[in-house]
## 1
Amino acid sequence: MAAHTHIGDLTKQTISRLALSLGLTLAFVFVEIAAGMAGNSLALLTDAAHNFTDVIALGLSWYAVRLATQPSNARKTFGYHRAGILIALVNATTLVVISLGIFYEAWQRFLNPPEVQSGILIGVGSIAFVVNLVTALLVKKGSEHDLNMRATFIHLMGDVLSTIGAVVAGIIIYFTGANWLDALVSALIGVLILWSAWGILRETVDILLESTPHDVDMNAMLGDVLQIKGVLGVHDLHVWSISSSLRTMSAHILTADIPISNGADIQAAINELVAHRYNIGHATIQLECSGCAPDMLYCDMQEAGHVHGHPMP
């Protein structure tokens, strides 16, 4: 019960931090839009657009965290853990669209650079740096193991770096009058956004396709399971992720014709192995005795010799 309360407290803290970050970011979007229009700065308007996508990202992340706390039911037997993955996919896709728009507008301004009010660019960019850094730090906790939070954190850290670029461009423009630097900084921000989005997209698609987690060596796992006393073979072995922090596994285990109590010991040993060595929190183990014709099973992994990255027959 204490552990459940602790988890609930952490979730409430996460929800509160997301809500505070959302409020700060939304307020600053309006400030940055006004400053960008007054200073005729694409870099500031670009950063405002990126900040607005952060508002959307924070709102969706907030909703996903709240949804993930709902218990499982007859229709959602795994609960709502995939909600965060779907939100991360939406956020990453939004980043790609925004970056393409930035590239187009930056090119137009590079061909015909307008005059930029460097003082406004420097002042507002400096304030934006502080706001973005504070909001990024608010959502950093837990982002290492939660893809939804990581996508949001990357959104915000992208803003931190882009505002640094805007300030540097403003300083150089102030001394040199090279207004084209505003468009160049915007294009670099677009590259940063696109690079960040690609990493999130790749990971979310892997999870939605139920791919094997990148840090799980299936051949090594197969060898470890075969070392457990009483295990004669492994068939139909699958490992996938429900979310970035929740992994599951299913397997058929070949044993001798033994009592159920002995089979329970084998299952317990396998569960302990995969939980501690491969961070798999949910394993479904089906025991098969030696008279069950394992060659008729879907996949005899012990004889296949390779299990990762190849389609099964």
## 2
Amino acid sequence: MSSTQTIGKQRIITHRGLEPSNPNFFSESSFEAFQQQLTRGFGGIELDPNPTKDGIIVMHDATLKRLTDGRDERPVAGLTTEEITQIPLKNGRIPTFDEVMELIGNSDGAVSALHLKSRFQTPETLERIMDALEKHRGVFDKFFIFDVKADTARTLKGRFPTIRLAPSVSHPYDIKRFNEVVGGTLLSLEEALALRADGIIEGVWGDEWDLEDEGGSTKRLYTPEFFDAIHKAGMFAALVTPELHGTSPGLYGGESHPDSKDVKTLLERIKEIKIAGNDYFCTDYPEEVSKL
């Protein structure tokens, strides 16, 4: 990407329907938020498939507590899809997986990102998710699945040869500190390149947790060398921008990314990442980032 071009909406993946710079926006992960952002022309949305007792909805957390402001603390897995979709949010409603996939299919974007969390990569739950994906083969060109472990990627590719996959890639020190608590989904760049050589993945999902390195020194994951290696292997590069390690609930290791200390600092860093060679940006600030 030329350093003189704006990033543009088609390179933006909105994060869980969030938009904190718009205080009157729809609730997180609501049908209305996803619909509105896709209608505005962004490249895609980031979504979290979440199995219920009898289906799959789209929501980040394992329980309803945070999304309902504490009114309902029941676990998602213990409720039916109908029960959950009847629960009103502050401004919107919780959608089913099928509804969100239909929104993606009807949009002009081609880079929605389906987050397959580690706890759903067990054989039984993965089979349920693949059965749900079966109905949406016609829109495989409009999304990719990220955070996949190597074995999960091979299973998905075996059933769906045309599906696009992108493992989460982190700095070695972040892998050392955080991989156990995220269920082993963080890969090194070298591991990702090996999967690409086997024809298993199409992209990389960059995940820079903070700037701390061993011994008190600093580090950067998002460098020109990082993106060059990805592109030379014929892959796309997508990533979470620094604020996602400042706004996500329940940070795993208490990390706080200094590049997200304020919006001005964040946007300056995202400009640097764009110039370094990144392709797609998952962010809480889609409008602001698209204009950089």
